[in-house]
Design a protein that fits this description.
This protein is mostly helical and about 110 residues long. The protein has two domains: about 40 residues, no CATH class; about 70 residues, no CATH class. The chain has five helices and two strands, in the order αααββαα. Strands 1-2 form a two-stranded antiparallel ribbon. Strand 1 and strand 2 form a beta hairpin.
């Protein structure tokens, strides 16, 4: 029962912090500079989430030839840059990752 109450209170705090901002943004015109800066938030968040996974292994830097995450990320970035096709980028990145893992584990 304590866990349920804790989850409910965490939900209320999260909702209470985020909802007023979302409600105000719909009614207030933001300056152009703020709107332009907000376009970079998804890229910044994705980079912050993926960089530790790609560049580290067990808390240590792993920028080497045997890092399948790094190899797949580099190839996926190049495919995305050249084609601008999301599905192709995902498929090629996953294929490179799988190939790298199979080749290096053999």
């Amino acid at each position: 029962m304590k866990e349920f109450v804790l989850i409910v209170f965490m939900m209320l705090v999260t909702f209470g912090v985020r909802y007023p901002v979302l409600a105000l943004v719909g009614r207030v015109n933001l300056p152009y500079s703020v709107q332009r800066a907000l376009k970079f938030v998804p890229v910044a968040v994705l980079s912050a989430l993926s960089a530790p996974i790609v560049l580290t292994n067990d808390g240590q830097w792993n920028v080497s030839f045997d890092n399948a995450y790094l190899a797949a990320s580099i190839v996926a970035i190049l495919v995305a840059w050249k084609t601008r096709h999301l599905l192709l980028t995902i498929v090629v990145g996953m294929a490179v990752f799988a190939f790298w893992r199979v080749v290096l584990s053999a």
